[in-house]
Structure formats: C-alpha cells, structure tokens
Amino acid sequence: MVLNGYHTSLLLAYLVSSLSREDRDAISRDCMHVGLTYKYTTTSSKLQRIRRGLYYRYISHLRGELILPAGRTQDLPSITMFAEELSGNASRKKQEEARNRRRQVKQQQQRRAVTTAPIVSNASAAGSTTNDTPSAAATVGNNGDTVTSSKPVAVSAAAPLPVSPALFSGPLASNNASSSSATATGGASSSSAVTQALEQRRIRTLQRLQTASVVCIQSWFRAVLSNHALLHEEWQSFDKRMGDLITLGTILKTAKNTTYVPPPATTSMLSLQLLFIVQPPFRNKSTKDGSKKLIDIKDANRLESLLRHVLLPGILSDDDQLDPLLPWLHSAEGKFRLEKLLRFSVICFVSCPGMTSIHKSVVALIRALIVGAKARPVIAKHCQKFLLHATSPLEVNEKVDGIAPEKSLDLIWRLRTLLLYGTGAKGEPIPHNAEKMREACISKQDRDRANIMLLLVLDGIQSFPILRTQLQSRFVAEILTVPLFTWKVTFSNLLVEPKGSASDTTDPPFITFLKAFVGTREEALSTGNLKSTLFTEDVPLSKCPAPNVLCLLANLAQMGRLCPSINGSDPTKLNYKAGALFFNFLASLIDLVPLGTFTARRSAVEWVTHGAHHSPIVLSTVVLDQCKILLVDSYVRELFSSAINDTALNTEHVITSKNDKDLKLEKDMAEVGGTSAANLAAKEARIDRDRSFWKSSKWAKKLSKTMLGHSSNSSSLRLSSSGIAKGGGSLVNTSSMSRQLAHSGASHDTHTKKAFLSREESEESTKANMDGVPYSPQFLIALCRAYGTILSRWGGGGKQDIVKRVDNSANKSERNKEAKSSEASTTVEPCVLSLLNSDRKVVADLYDIIDSETSPMPIRSMKIRPEYGRSDGGNQGATVLFMFVTCLSHVLIVTDDIEIHEMDRPLPPHQLRRIILLLKRLLYRACCVDDVHASSGVSRSISNSNYFGLSLISSSSRTMRDLYDRSSRRPLCTPKMWLIEDLLEKDLKRCKRYDQFASLLSTPVLRVCPFLVSFKRRLRLFERIVTTNRIEIQGSNQLQNLRPGKIVHITRGRLLEDGLLHLNNLGRNMRQRLVVQYLNEAGAREAGVDVGGLFKEFWTDLSNMAFDPNFALFRATEGAGNCMYPNPSSSQAHGSDSIVLFEFLGRILGKALYEGITIQPQFAHFFLSFLRGDYNFLHMLPDLSTMDPQLYNNLMFLKTYEGDAADLCLTFTVANDDFGRNDEIELIPNGANIEVTNSNKQRYIGLMAKYHVCDKVKQQSQAFTRGLWEVLISGASDGKIDVADMKAHAKYSGGFSGLDKHVMRFWKVFSSMTSKQQADLLKFVTSCERPPPLGFSCMNPPFTIQRVGVMRDGDKLPSASTCFNTLKLPTYSSEKVMRERLIYSIESGAGFELS
Fold first, then answer.
1. 402, 403, 409, 410 alpha-carbon torsion, rounded to 10°
2. Percent of the chain with pLDDT over 70
3. Tens digits of per-residue pLDDT, 682-695?
4. Which residue of 536, 576, 941, 1311 is most buried, as measured by CB atoms within 10 A?
5. What confidence category does residue 946 fall into, taking pLDDT thresholds of 50, 70 and 90?
6. How far is CA 637 from CA 634, 640, 1024, 1341, in A?
7. What digits encode the pLDDT tens for the residues 510-533?
8. CA 499 vs CA 192, 239, 371, 493, 663: distances in Å
9. Residue 923 and residue 917: Cα distance in Å, rounded?
10. Inter-CA distances, 1126 with 916, 1191, 1252, Å
11. CA-based torsion, 1086, 1092, 1093, 1095: positive or negative
12. Residue 296: left if φ>0, alpha if ψ -120 to 50, beta else—which one?
C-alpha cells in the first residue's frame, strides 16, 4: 500500500480530529515544515480515542526520527523518497520526468566531449570533479516545485557516510536520489570503477532505509485503521448481545415471572469484551479524583447494562454455581479481570454525575461483593484488599499493597476525593459562594451521589469486624475532616443507630468511630500532636482555607448539636458516657485549632510557608461559624442543665453541711459581731504588731522559748491557721522560708484539709449517692473541660475575645431560641462545688494542685487537655476548679451583699470561707513556691507556662479579689483568714535603699494576690518607698544633705488661688522640697520659718475649704461614715475650672502623702478604688447604697419584684435634676423607646448603678487621679509609657546590645506605636499593661530583650517570658516585618502560647 497526498491529508485529519483548537494550530505549523497540508473535518466520536501520541509518532516518521521497536538500533536516514512521493501529484511527476530526460541528454553530450579531451590521471580527474564540476541538486519546495542548486557535491571514495540526525530536522526538501545520480553520472569519466561502485552502494543503502521507513508508517496506519474497525465491530457485537440478553430476560420475566441468570461463561465473555472496548490506547492527564481518562457516556451505559442484567443476577443468586466471580478467583487472569471491572465501575461512579442508574448499579455491585448476607466470604475477602485498606493511601508516600495512592480503589479515599472535589459548582473543597448561599451551595444532585457512597462506606466498614477499628479511625481522619461535611451529605445515619442493627452498643455510630480514633491515637491526643496524624498532602491550605483540625471540630460541633444522645435536648435520651467522650475529644481539638477560631474578629489568618516565602491565608468564615455553634447560649444551657443532677450529687446536703472548722469560724465571726471591716483590720494590725515585738526582742524570744519548751523542732516548718508555714512569708528566690519549704516539705494544715471532704469521705459520699442513679459526673467534667478550654484560651489570660465576640451566625432560629432563654441560671455553682467536695478523684486532684510535694509541676504549667493514656483522664480537679471560680466570679456580678449574708446566694458563707482557704493556698503556691522549686532543682518537670495554668491563676486571683473587696465592706471572715503569716516581713528587713524597696512592687505576690500580705506590711512598704525616694530627692537633716527648697508665697486670704498659681504647674517637681512662706493681707511676709509645719498648715486650711460640701467640689455619702466623693454637679458651680481644681487637689493630696502628712478627709470606698486604679464594677450596687440609699432600695425592689416588670412603666433612661435642671439621659442608644421587662431588668439595674456611681463622677475622678499619680508615681495616670525611661533601663541578652540594628528597629517601632499598642506590648511581656509605679528603674527583673535568630521572617513570632520580663525578639529582616509580627503577637490574645 502506497500513500499519496490525499491519503496523507485524511490521515492528518483523522489524527487531529480529537485535539483542541490550539493543538490543531500547532499541527498546521508542523505540517507546513514538512510540505504537507490537510483539511480538518468532523468525523466520528470514536476519533477522540486517538490521542496526541499517535500524531507525534507520525510526524516523527516524516522527519526521519522514527521511534523503532525494541531491538532495532540502527539510525534511519531522511525519507526523501517518501517525501517526494507525498509532495507532488501526477502532472508534476510528468514534468519531473521530462526534466530528467533533458538532463540525461545533456550529460551524454558532455561525455562525448570528454572523450576528445586528453587523458589525465585519476587523481587529477577526481580533484577536478571535486572542485570544478558543478552538480545540480534537486530539492522539492513547499509548493512541490523542483529547485536546482549549483553547489558542488563532494564524492568520497570511502564507505558511505552515516547521515547526521541534524540533517533531517528541517524541511524535507532535498532530493538526494536525483542529486546523487546526477553527480555519479557527471563524474563517470573522471572516476574509477571502485569509486562508482561505492557511490552506487551508498545510494542503494539509502533507498532501502527509506523504504523501511515508509513500510513502518504504512503498517502503523493500517494498525490504526484495523484497531478502529475492530473496536467498531466489538461495539456492535456487544450491543447486539446485550440487546438479545435483555430481550430474553424480559420474555422470561413476562412469561414465567422469573429472573434470567446468564451462564458464567457468557458473563465472563461479555465482561472481557467490555473491558477490551473501554481500554483506549491513549489517556488524558490525571484528573482530581485520580482517574486517568474521560469516561464515554456510551461506555458507562454499557457498564450499567452489564452490571444490572448480567453480573448482578448471578452474584445475588443463592446458587454458587451461577456466580460468575467464583471461577475468576481461581486464576490470576480472573483476579485481574475483577480488579479492572471494579476500577472501571468506581471511575464511572465518580466521573458521571447525574447518572443515577449507573450509581445504583455500581453500589449494588459493591454491596453484593462485600456487604450483606449474600456476600460470598471468599469474594469479600479478596475485594477487601483493594476496596477497604486498613492503612490509608495518604499515610505513606509509598504504594499500599503495590498500588499508588492516585490509582487506589479504596472506598474511603474515593469518598474523600468525591466530597472534596466532586461537590460544588467548580469542584472546590469550599465553594466560593458558600458564605452567601450556605447549604444551598451544594446541589441536591451532588448531595445524593455523596449520600449513596457514604452509606456504602459505612456498610462496608461494618462488614469487616477484624478491620473495623482501623477503618473507623480512618473514617474520622479522612472523612470527618472534609470541610462542610455536614452540608455535603445527609449524616443522620451517623447520629442514630439504624433499627435492626447488630451493634452491641447503644452509642451513636459517630461516637463509636471517635472511640476507635481515640484508641489508635492516644499518645498523639495526650501530647497535643494530633495535627501530625491528620494528613494534609491532598488538600493544601492554599486550596482549602481551613486546616483539618478546624474542619474536624466544625463537623463534630454540627453533629453533636443535632445528636439527641449528647445535645441535652431530651434528658431521657442522654448518654452520659458518650457525651463525656465527645466533649473530651472536643477539648483536645479546641486546644489545637487556630487562635482565630473563637476571637471577636470576623476573620482569622494562618501563615503558609513556600520555601523562604510566607503568605497569609484567610480562614474560611463559613467553617469558623460552624465552630461557633458551641457558643450559642441556648445550646450551652441545655448541655449544663442536663449534666447537672442535684439529687445524684446530693448537692443540698453537701452545701449545707458544716464541719468543726466551719463552726469555729462562725463562732469567731459571732464574736466580732457588727464590727466594721476597718476596725477588724486595725485590731489585727495591733495583734500583728504585738507578735512582731515578741519576735524582734531578744529577751522576749528567750522568755517565749523557755515557756514553750523544746517540744517542737525550731528548724521545722509548720503551717499556721491560715494554712501556710510559720516563719516564712518571703517572695520568690529571696525567702529562706520558701526555700526550706521547697526542700524539706511541710505537712498539710488541718484546717485547710477540712475545708473540703477528705478522700475517704468523698469516696463514701460518691458511692452512697450514685447507687441506682443512671448518672455519671464525667459528662459534667467533660463539659467543664471543653468550655474551660475555650474560656482559658480566649477569655482567660488573654484579652477576653470570647466576651467581646459578635454573633455572626446566619441561623436565625438559634438566635431566636437564645433570646427566649435569657434568664440567668445560678444552679451551676452549687452543683460544681458539690462535685469539688464529693468526687474522690476531684478531691485528690485538688490536693495535688495545692501541694507542691504531691505534684511538682507548677500550677502555671498545668494543662487542661485530657490525657487518654491515663485511666483517670488527667487532672480533673483543676478543670472543675477553673470552671467553678469562673462561674462564681461571673455570678457575683448580679449578687449583692444582702443575698450573700442573708439569703445564702450563690453559696452559704461557710462555703465561701472554704473557697477562700483553698484559693489562698493555690495562689500562694503559684506566686511563692513554684518558682522556688524550679530554681532550687527540687523538680525538673516541664515548667513552661501554659495558657490554662495562667488562666487558672488569673481567675482564682480575680475571684479572691472580688471576695476580698466584699469582705472589706462587710466581713465574710476574720481578717487573719486572708493573710499568710510573716509574708514579706524578711524582705522588708532586707531592703535598705529606694530601688530595693521599689523592686518588691513587681513581685508576683503583690501583683497577683496582694491581699495575702497584711495591710500593715503593705502600708509600711509604701511608707518606705516614699521615704527613701524623698531622701534621695530632698536630702535629710540626719544625713546632713538637706537641699534648699522651692519657696512658695501663699496669701492668707487666697489659699486656693495662690496655691493653684504657684503649685499646679510644678508637675513631678512637687517631689522637691517646698518652703511655704505666708503673706498677710498687706502682702508682708510672716515671721514663721517652714521646716514642714507651714506646709501642713497650708494643707489643713486648703483641705478644710476644698473638701467642704458647701464649696461644691465634693459631697458626703448619705449611707454611712460621712465619706467624701466628687460632686457630680461641680461643673455647674465652678464651670470649666472644676477639672483644673480637681487636678490641683489631687497633686496637693499626693504631696501630702509624699511628705507623710496624715490627711483629714475620709473618702468613699468607690472613690478610693478610683484612686487606686482598679475599681471593681461588681460593687456598684453596694456603693450606690452609700451615695443614694433611696435609689438603691428602689433598684432592689425591682430586682426582687416577682410580677411583670413591664407594669412599672420604666425605660432605659435616667432623670438628672441638678440645680433645678431636668434632663433625661439615655442609658443605651434609643433607650427611651426600650421598655424594662423581666428579661432585661438586671441590665437596667446595672446600668443605673453604673451611671450614678461611675459615669456622673468620671471626669472629676479622672482629673483628681491624674494629679495624685503625677506626684506619687512615675508618669501620668493615663497609662502613657515613658519610652526614654524604658529604653534607658532595658537590658539585652542572647547576643543583643544597645547598638544592634534589630534593637534599634525595635525601639523605633515601639515609639511609633499608639499608646494602646504600647500598653498591650508591655502587658505581653510583663503581664501588666501599666508601667512600674516608680519608673522602669524599679522593674524587677528589668525589661529585657533577648535575641532569637531566624533564617526566615516567618519562622517564629515574638514571644515572652513574663517570669523574667523578657521579650524574645526574632531577628527580622526589616522594620515593617518586625512591626507586623509584634502587633500580630500582642493582638492575638494568645499570651504564652505563641512561644
């Protein structure tokens, strides 16, 4: 068979018919190079089976680069003859023959002329031929014309030279045969017979190679045509046979109502025929689901017919002899056939959306093979090897059972791929319109297909008991980590066990899966390394903006919200053990999710590393909203309401019972009776002073030792009645008592032990009250762990983002349900406290917390994450205690003194005293003992701070401070119960200079729990700080370095005016020595000399005038004590000068305190809190009782009103009638139109108290405080940081110095920050946002910047060690990057977690 130009054009059209337009254009250009043209025509759809590889193979033949079969190594020359044949038509051939005849005639004439010339030597003849004789080389151009060339052609006398492949890389235009023949004929007279023979041999060899090339191309083309014809024949044969079988089955069904089962031989033959048809020689690139080809719809329909009418009847037959698959398993060929059939079936399922019949047939096939009672065990076992792997293809990069992951038939992996890329409009893991359309972004067609495969996978998992645990674990790791899983499938089968199920457990199916997952990953869950076991190679964060851990939390939160066994909607269906497992697992996930999950900010960012570059990825807001279902108020109430069982926990008995210690404390309180807190404190101070006398005097010590004898070892340490050691009381790394306590240990205080039930009592109580009750406190503990993790990460030591969050949920029904259940519940605290008293494990954990010998791990290092490797699940006591103190601190907001002392709300007073004893010991250990243990080497356990441990300390301190403030107003206990005996005593004796005294202010105990130190020692510390600083600035007569003072002239009748004129502008210079000189009314100087007395007189006269209520700057409280507070109407009396007057009076008061002058006026409690800078807004109602008792009684009536508050016709407004002016002020925006009801009356009461106590005197209090702090402490009271002072006293470590470029960048960035950002950074490093009271020179340890070397900017974020006031600063490449990383760290609210 010889191809002409017409055949070539048809072949090219045939080859390129299935290519894209761009590919066809490229082929056109290639064909122009070889001198060919073609016309594209549309042919049969079967031409799509011929792929790009056939075309390139054909072109390579045309170019002389034929790819030879194996075993052939010779090179092929250019196929000039074939190109010549293809490039012309009949007319051109005739013209070429005519030219050749004329050329031959000319050559004959030349030979005749040569015979008449003289004979020369062969050498000279050869040289003449080589150099002088022109040779016409004919070439064939693109248009078929022949072009002659006059270039000489050298003829070698050696063997034929091999043709270089580069010669044939260009257009096929040279006619080598013609040119060689002409050259040989033209040089015959001058060439020898040997040379001519060699030339002819070379030509024949070239022709043979050209002929072989043409034959190869022709055979390939014939093979393509033959294959196509064979496939077409097989298609027709298969369709005809299937039509006959379907017709036969229909006839039998109609006539005899029986199902036709084809013989196994027929089934095998048809299966082989289908597999032959659907296997094309060339395939497309890999698709997202791993399939390697595009499925033809006709082939998919043929598969559906084969499965439904041929395979399934035999497989489902009860007769094994009719099962066509059993004979297949007896040979390797049959096994291969079965695998290929399953592979094609799965690919059809994934690649053919919308074809329900195919989906049903494929699922029916797989179910018949591995699921159900009719599944043959032999076939199921064989199919399990490649349908359900025990090991995920994602776990290892290598092949699983010899199969690459992208070719795996594993159903779980295929389901994951389908859910990731087979749903949604554009095949995205998270559809781009998900936030707008919500669940509607997934079409019903895609959801139905996913549901079919999900049910198949679930049934397949249940069919293999041996591998069930591994498969269930894989399901959680690969399927439940798919983003928006609850939208893409109908997951009701995972929530409730199907009826008739053979399962031996009552747990919901997804809880069973979680058990298997936890069982296979205990170590990773306990150590927080779960992320390493969840594989993300198939879904990078750049394609799916939601990490696997976040997706898993979101999906489980949605499933748990709808599962009746654990959501608490129906207490009769609640499964306590399943709920405990679920929320413990949620706690592990919440511990690992990104920091932006539960923040108040709408968006969250994660950083992705690409080599040396780092790029931010904004996390999907849809997935974040799914996680925040855990924070819906109604859902949280349902959970805790169902977890609390007062009857089972015997709450009433535990809360009301009293032991001997409680009775003794009540007796002590009865003795003091109605004594005020101030008188009690003074009495305790006198007792403490007497005790100090006996300890300081030598003869008193001897007398005391003689009286007591030697019954006790003086070197041993004993705990006082307050629960802490005697003779101790010093601070971190400075107290000998603390060091001895750390080394030698100390026995537990009997009174502190009896604060809660002993371990034996708790065990008996638990047994007595749990028998016969289907209740488990583990569910409540798990809830405390899950929500404690949220509160500690986002609402504990950070910026309380969880409190400030905005509900972005699009679910209106949840918001409506939340609004209906707005009544606050206070039943959590008694129940949790009962658990703290009665549960044996919880009580044991509490002792581990407060006893450093039992548990050497510091409190700040405690973790809330459950420990699955331990039988007890980790420290439950710390978890329950944290939730208890957090709830107690919250409920105290709406609790007044009357409810605490007279109504036993929220807890009886004796229980509050127990809490005080417990938290006091916890805080003492956290602030004074833990660091001593770590520094002395007693314990080398992990001591890095953890967010939960820090939150536990913070919450305990906040709760204790609230109780202490209430007790200072109306005693809850005796003052000595708050104190640690001799705490700070030795440190005060050790200090001599101002900087030593000032350094004590930054110690943990005074920053976290100053109430543990007696008021006498705190007052003495303040006095020593002021005195030593005054001596440094003013000098003293004793040291004979008294400096001259600033003279201030004061006229007797113009005290306020002259004082304001001369003193108000001094600012911090008021610390200098002031010499007051009085002038009489005539302006003459009086005779008195000021050595301190005249300034006291000036202060006394000025205070008598300024603090007189008639002067309208201050008012006196009406309730009790006649205490002073700023007059809210001062601006009406003094105009704009009132603020200036308050600042001046604050400076004068600061000067009086600085000089040690006792001031006469007594200030109200709330105003003193304003001056201190830490006003507790929990005390607004009690403070209101001292300002306006009538208003307070009215608000208390409203609070306890049992009727409908709407009947009182109140709105969120307040009337202001100062000086006869009646103004109505709205408490909230549009408050005049918002009615006060039972649901919002608590908010109304709080807003009313806040307005009268805080808002009305806010400007006056701030001005007075600014003046006071400006004199007493470094800097103003507005919190601005003195950057120059901070920089001057900063230290550097790790290789940094003050001249380092990174340090200079830091100070430049810090100076450019806002005041709020500077305060946040200071809090990030030191845990306190305010600068030290006496400047950064007094900060101990000093503010330190430590170098952290990094290779790339994104390797690390700035972190801090607040124990040492150290900022760990990476060496960033630029100032811009450093600023971004610093702001990200301080605003993330993560505290120590970023390290």
1. 70
2. 70
3. 555 445 444 443 34
4. 576
5. confident
6. 5, 5, 52, 45
7. 999 999 999 988 888 888 888 877
8. 103, 43, 17, 10, 58
9. 10
10. 34, 18, 12
11. positive
12. beta
Poorest-pLDDT segment among 83-87, 1032-1036, 1272-1276: 83-87
Q: What are phi and psi of 1337, to 5 degrees?
A: -65, -20
Cα 1236 from Cα 651, distance rounded (Å): 34
Which DSSP letter does residue 263 get?
A: -
3-class DSSP string for 541-581: CCCCCCCHHHHHHHHHHHHHHHCCCCCCCCHHHCCHHHHHH
Helical segments of 795-943, H only:
812-820, 828-838, 840-850, 876-891, 897-902, 909-924, 930-936
Residue 378, pLDDT > 80, answer yes
Residue at token pair 């008792």: 1189
Amino acid at 1320: D
Reduce the secondary structure of 1096-1158 to three states and give it as a string: HHHHHHHHHHHCCHHHCCEEECCCCCCCEEECCCHHHHHCCHHHHHHHHHHHHHHHHHHCCCC
Q: Are 1039 and 1031 in contact (CB under 8 A)?
A: yes
Confidence of residue 560 (pLDDT cuts 50, 70, 90): very high
CA distance 973 to 967: 7
Q: What is the pTM of this model?
A: 0.71
What pLDDT band is residue 504 in, cutting at 50, 70 and 90? low
Q: Residue written as tokens 């150290």?
A: 1366
Q: What are the backbone dihedrals phi and psi of residue 279, each rounded to the nearest 5 degrees, phi first?
A: -100, 95
Q: Which secondary-structure segment (H or E) carries 1305?
A: helix 1301-1312
Q: Which of 653, 965, 630 is nearest to 807 (CA)?
A: 630
CA distance 358 to 206: 57
- In angstroms, what CA-CA distances link 41 with 9, 30, 38, 47? 10, 18, 9, 11
**Nearest-5° Cα angle at 516, 513 to 522:** 130
Extract the tokens encoding 751.
């009174």
Neighbours of 1163 (CB within 10 A): 21
Give the dihedral of Cα atoms 324, 330, 332, 334; nearest 10 deg.
-10
What's the pLDDT at 473? 92
- Measured CA angle at 809 (ends 804, 810), to 5 deg: 150
Q: How far apart are CA 594 and CA 596, in angstroms?
A: 5
Q: 641-645 long-range contacts, Cβ below 8 Å, gap at least 24?
A: 641/568, 641/825, 642/568, 642/571, 642/574, 643/568, 643/579, 643/779, 643/780, 643/783, 644/780, 644/827, 644/828, 644/831, 645/773, 645/775, 645/831
Cα–Cα distance for residue pair 314/3, rounded to 1 Å: 51
Q: Look up residue 360 and give its DSSP letter.
A: H
Place of tokens 């405390």: 784
- Residue 1025 has what DSSP assignment? H
Pairing outcome for strands 139-140 and 146-147: antiparallel
The predicted structure's pLDDT at residue 49? 40
Whether the CB-CB separation of 1359 and 1392 falls below 8 Å is answered with yes
Of 859, 589, 914, 882, the residue nearest 723 (C-alpha): 914
How far is 808 from 814, CA to CA, in rounded Å? 11
pLDDT tens-digit profile of 655-707? 888 888 889 888 888 877 655 555 555 555 445 444 443 344 443 344 334 33
Cβ–Cβ under 8 Å, residues 1291 and 1342: yes
Return the axis-axis angle of helices 193-256 and 176-186, rounded to nearest 10°. Answer: 160
Task: State how far the Cα of 867 lies from the Cα of 873, in Å rounded to an integer.
Answer: 5
Q: Maximum CA pair distance of the chain?
A: 159
Q: Which amino acid is at 1217?
A: D
To the nearest 10°, the Cα dihedral for 817, 819, 823, 826? 70
What pLDDT, in 10s, does the model give residues 139-181? Answer: 333 333 333 333 333 333 333 333 333 333 333 334 444 444 4
